[in-house]
Structure formats: structure tokens, C-alpha cells
Amino acid sequence: MRPHEDLIAIDIHAHAEVSCRNPFDSYGKEYDRAVDKYFGSNLRPTIDETVAHYREKKSAW
Fold first, then answer.
1. What integer pLDDT is reported at residue 36 of this predicted model?
2. pLDDT for 10-26, tens place per residue?
3. What does the alpha-carbon distance between residue 38 and residue 35 come to, in Å, rounded to a whole number?
4. What is the pTM of this model?
């Protein structure tokens, strides 16, 4: 079986919430607070956590 045959969805708009290379950018504090309020959490998934989430849901991005 080819890996894509197991997919049930494709997300065409995903973001890496936590950079692998760049330090936290305090310029985005207002944006971060808005995201915190909207999602009810100040935790941002790492890239590895995001990949695990999509794999668990049998989705790709």
C-alpha cells in the first residue's frame, strides 16, 4: 500500500507554531494573545507534535 492511500483528509493550510530555528519573537505578542484567547490555551504545538497530530488523524498537509 502506498502511504497516501491511507489518508482521509488533506489540510491545505497548516502552520508551524513553534520554530525549529528562530528564537521567540516578542513582536508577535499581540497576535499570540489573540490566539490564546481564541483557542483558550497559550500552548503552541511543536512541529513534531503537529506531525503526530496529523498522522493520528490520517491527514496530510
1. 87
2. 887 877 777 778 777 77
3. 5
4. 0.60
CA angle (13, 51, 32) in 5-degree steps? 60
What does the pLDDT look like over 36-58, one tens digit per residue? 898 888 888 888 888 888 888 88
Cβ atoms of residues 8 and 59 within 8 Å: yes
Three-class secondary structure assignment of 1-61? CCHHHHCCEECCCCCCCCCCCCCCCHHHHHHHHHHHHHHCCCCCCCHHHHHHHHHHCCEEC
What's the first-to-final CA gap in the chain, in angstroms? Answer: 20
- Report percent pLDDT > 70 for the chain: 95
Beta partners for residue 16, in sequence order: none
